[in-house]
Amino acid sequence: MENNNKKGISKRTLRTKIILLVILAVIMVPLIILYKSVGDTTPKIKLYDRNQTENSSENQEAQTTEPQTEPQTEPVSEEPQAVPETKTAEKKPATIIPITDAEKWNLAIINTKYPLPDSYAPTLSNAINGSNIQLDSRVSERYAEMYAAAKLSGCVLTPYSGYHSYALQETNYNRKVNFYVNQGISAEEANQKASAQVLPAGCSEHNAGLAMDIVSASSDFINTKEYKWLCENAHNYGFILRYPEDKTAITGMNFEPWHWRYVGTQAAKEMKEKNQCLEEYLGLA
Fold it and tell me: Which of 139, 144, 153, 258 is an S-S bond match for 135, by CB 3.0 to 4.6 Å?
């Protein structure tokens, strides 16, 4: 009997174990499958995230770099556009004033490009008492004032050469041309050299009576006290150094320290302040 009972218990125990194993298997298999699926997916997700992060970082670096470059690049590309606009805005429009203008005659530009009208003849008067050197009567009065002021400072602004007739100007010009021709250079080159020193008839400020050669027509004049006084005071009387040494490329004329042109007090002061020659003041350069 005890053996039979033991066998019965063993069978029941075995059956119970089998049932438990089956139940455990039913529970474990899905867990294992789930675990496996999670285990298989996790590395892929991490790998994908890492690559995505690296790519994202590179994109961020590229995006970070571009805005840093653009602000440095844009002003450089904008500046060349902004500078001409500023210069254009500041540059005075070109103004060609004829000598016949009743109000602004004193600012007339006179040279080979802008000659005087045919047969132009100014009304003349002596520059100072006791001299037969003449200027346009509207200019001679101001020259006399300047002469008197300089004399009080111990400087004598002797009128050397003022108004030139067309005939005198032509004579002076041809003399200079012949001087160079006699040196063996071509007539064309001789005319070019002469024009930088003596302008042809009708193209000189002397023909209009607006300019005075003071004391002499020598480069030594630059070393005189009269020249120094003129540089410091002439603008107060409406006169300018017409052909400055640093403006020869603009005026087309050699430096002439003795040649002083009347332009009016306001214009002379503005040109003095801005270090301009007449061409620059009129917007022609």
Answer: 139
First to last CA, the chain: 137
Output the DSSP codes for 97-111.
Answer: --TT-TTTGGG---S
Transcribe 101-147 into DSSP letters.
-TTTGGG---SSSSPPPTT----EEESSTT---EEEHHHHHHHHHHH
Residue-wise pLDDT tens digits, 131-154: 999 999 999 999 999 999 999 999
280 is catalytic: no
pLDDT in tens, 49-104: 444 444 444 444 434 334 343 444 444 444 444 444 444 446 668 999 999 999 99
Among the listed residues 115, 117, 164, 111, the one whose alpha carbon sits nearest the alpha carbon of residue 136: 164
Around Cβ 160, how many Cβ atoms within 10 Å? 17
DSSP character at residue 92: P
* Candidates 2, 226, 232, 256; catalytic one: 256
**8 A C-beta contact, residue 221 and residue 257:** yes
Query: Is the entire prediction scored with pTM above 0.90?
Result: no
Cα angle: 65, vertex 68, 72; to 5 degrees: 135
Tokens of 204: 């000189």
H-helix or E-strand spanning residue 261: strand 259-262
Residue for token digits 């066998």? 7
Q: Which two tokens stand for residue 34?
A: 């789930």
